[in-house]
């Protein structure tokens, strides 16, 4: 999920789930345990020896100098300005949609792709374009692409939750589900696609969806690629279901109550006037009908 710090857990019940092949997972928020490599352990050194630093009001950006050079004369500086502008726009959207407004600067590293793969591929069981571990880490590019926009928005949610409650260990279905939902909104996506709904409906009718308990570990990093694809999609779909049936305001009330009470059940009753088992049952029933 988030950073190296110890966190107080919040828990629910447990059941089984099943693998399936659907899509390539692009992003991951993974807890980095003691001894795991981080940008801070490596220091301000990129693939060619250093990072370039640039600051905006809410972010500190470190960009690998190899990416600077690949951008061409003055190209990298434009890219730095563009990526910080995208981050600031995401920050405003985070405040508007989720009432999350981190009160300290968030550090973002844009890594040379080869160095990112060499240093961090061992953390994942599937390909990743970025993760959050005390700072946002991005597998490098030299221009703004839709994929980069998605990753930045996704990881910003993890960073914001970490700032809001640094010692709280959120379940992956909540942490990843909200991040996927926010990422989708950034791309103008306001509902599940027909293909996503058909896939989930098929597994719901077969009783092969994960339970929320299956998705309640701090991270989905231990999942095989096919299982991770389903886990991310199902987490997103559950949050989207809550927003569709109850509204964005109740999602804000839910995460706020989780942070205050450290209890998913109390937060669910406060925000949705129902318990998690009932909310999960309604979600799976709706999918089965789809």
What are the defining features of this structure?
disordered N terminus, 5-stranded mixed sheet, 11 helices, 290 residues, alpha/beta, Neutral Protease, domain 2
Distance, first to last CA: 31 Å
CATH class descriptor name: Mainly Alpha
Strand order of the largest sheet: 2-3-4-6-5
C-alpha Rg, in Å? 19 Å
Level-2 CATH architecture: Orthogonal Bundle
Strand percentage lies at 5-15%
Low-confidence residue ranges: 1-9, 11-49
Number of domains: 1
What is the share of helical residues? Answer: 40-55%
Order of helices and strands: EHEEHHEHEEHEHHHHHH
CATH fold call: Neutral Protease, domain 2
Number of helices: 11
Biggest beta sheet attributes: 5 strands, mixed
Total E-strand runs: 7
Give average pLDDT, whole number: 82
CATH superfamily: Neutral Protease Domain 2
List the helices and strands and how they pair.
Elements: E1 8-9, H1 39-42, E2 51-55, E3 59-64, H2 65-70, H3 75-98, E4 106-111, H4 113-120, E5 130-132, E6 136-139, H5 146-164, E7 168-169, H6 172-186, H7 194-205, H8 225-246, H9 248-261, H10 264-272, H11 276-289
Parallel strand pairs: 1-7, 3-4, 4-6
Antiparallel strand pairs: 2-3, 5-6
Helix pairs in contact: 3-5, 5-6, 6-8, 7-11, 8-9, 9-10
Descriptive overview:
It is a single chain. The protein is of the alpha/beta class. The protein has a single domain, classed as Neutral Protease Domain 2 (Neutral Protease, domain 2, Orthogonal Bundle). 51% of the residues lie in helices and 10% in strands. The protein is built from 11 helices and 7 strands. The strands form 2 sheets. The chain has a 5-stranded mixed sheet with strand order 2-3-4-6-5. Strand 5 and strand 6 form a beta hairpin. Helix 6 packs across helix 8 and helix 8 crosses helix 9. The longest helix is centred in the N-terminal third of the chain and has 24 residues, at 75-98. It is globular. It starts with 7 loop residues before the first strand and ends with a helix. Residues 1-9 and 11-49 have low confidence and may be disordered.
């Amino acid at each position: 999920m988030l950073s190296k710090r110890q966190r107080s857990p919040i828990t629910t019940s447990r059941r089984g789930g099943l693998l399936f092949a659907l899509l390539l997972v692009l992003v991951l928020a993974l807890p980095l345990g003691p001894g795991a490599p981080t940008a801070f352990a490596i220091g301000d050194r990129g693939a060619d020896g250093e990072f370039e630093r640039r600051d905006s009001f809410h972010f500190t950006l470190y960009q690998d100098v190899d990416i600077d050079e690949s951008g061409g004369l003055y190209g990298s500086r434009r890219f730095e300005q563009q990526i910080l502008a995208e981050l600031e726009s995401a920050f405003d959207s985070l405040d508007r949609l989720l009432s999350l407004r981190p009160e300290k600067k968030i550090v973002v590293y844009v890594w040379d792709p080869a160095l990112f793969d060499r240093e961090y591929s061992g953390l994942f069981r599937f390909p990743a374009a970025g993760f959050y571990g005390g700072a946002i880490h991005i597998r490098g590019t030299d221009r703004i692409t839709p994929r980069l926009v998605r990753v930045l928005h996704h990881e910003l949610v993890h960073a914001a939750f970490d700032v809001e409650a640094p010692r709280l260990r959120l379940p992956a279905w909540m942490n990843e589900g909200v991040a996927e939902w926010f990422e989708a909104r950034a791309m103008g996506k306001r509902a599940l696609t027909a293909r996503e709904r058909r896939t989930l409906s098929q597994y719901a009718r077969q009783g092969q969806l994960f339970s929320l308990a299956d998705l309640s570990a701090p991270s989905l990093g231990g999942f095989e690629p096919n299982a991770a694809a389903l886990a991310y999609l199902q987490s997103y779909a559950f949050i989207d279901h809550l927003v569709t049936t109850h509204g964005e305001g109740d999602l804000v009330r839910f995460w706020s109550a989780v942070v205050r009470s450290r209890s998913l059940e109390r937060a669910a009753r406060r925000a949705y006037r129902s318990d998690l088992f009932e909310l999960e049952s309604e979600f799976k029933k709706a999918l089965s009908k789809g």
